User: Fold this.
Amino acid sequence: MGPQAQRSMRLHSCQEALIRTLGVSLVAVAALVASFAVVIQRQDEPDRLRERRAEPSPPAIDLDQLRNAGL
Assistant:
């Protein structure tokens, strides 16, 4: 291989490495954004659960009472 071909291969390899690095970086940024979105959703979730817990729960039904009532 001549010197010009070697330079061309090095340039091509550098370009591939830069593109690969850019692709990996974009995937990493997307993963960070997704994880932040999940964290924000989970922070909002306990508020909804607290509201549900504040409501009184229905009384428990005793199965013996149902049997005695004929149901």
